[in-house]
Design goal:
The protein is of the alpha+beta class. The chain folds into two domains: 1-125, no CATH class; 128-182, Helix Hairpins (Orthogonal Bundle). Helix content is 38%, strand content 11%. It contains five helices and three strands. The protein has helices spanning 30-44, 84-102, 131-135, 143-157, 165-179, and strands spanning 48-53, 63-69, 72-78. Strands 1-2-3 form a three-stranded antiparallel beta sheet, with helices on one face.
Amino acid sequence: MQGSLLNWPDSIERTPKSERENCTKFSTGLQSTRSDLRTEMDLLDVEEWRVEEVGDHSSDPGVVVRWIKDGAEYAAACDAFTTKTANLRETYLWIRETRMRAQRATETAEDAFAAAQLPSGDEPVAPERPPHAVLGVDPDASKDEIKDAYREKAKDAHADVGGSNEAMTELNKAKEAMLEGR
């Protein structure tokens, strides 16, 4: 999908927009799914992780979850559905099911997450994201939209509620960058 602001892994094929499905099989919302994913990543004991997505008003509902574990870089992505919530939920469920499968006594030739391991030439996990992507707003968002998005994201990113100092620093920088000169 040319022109997308989403940092889609080179090794994963995009779903054509015309083939994306409406999804009604999930009854949870975006915030609940983010919370579930945060718990899952804690259980995986990853070194770092993030969700990549385009702002709420974008025509690209795809999501990419990237993480590093034991020095290896992984990515799981979904754009099969027409909403970001459904795509994130589907990705979270894949990660959860794969983690659960890895707890089985059955031995396989590869790590349970081998399918998600990125080739060495793919984008590293820690590139800096544009400020509007960090906040989940359009690049031309108003001051109020920026401040509201910051407050909403800070609720989950703050270290006191299970977030991290790095996440708060990224949010603060994004807010400052977007408010500068407005």
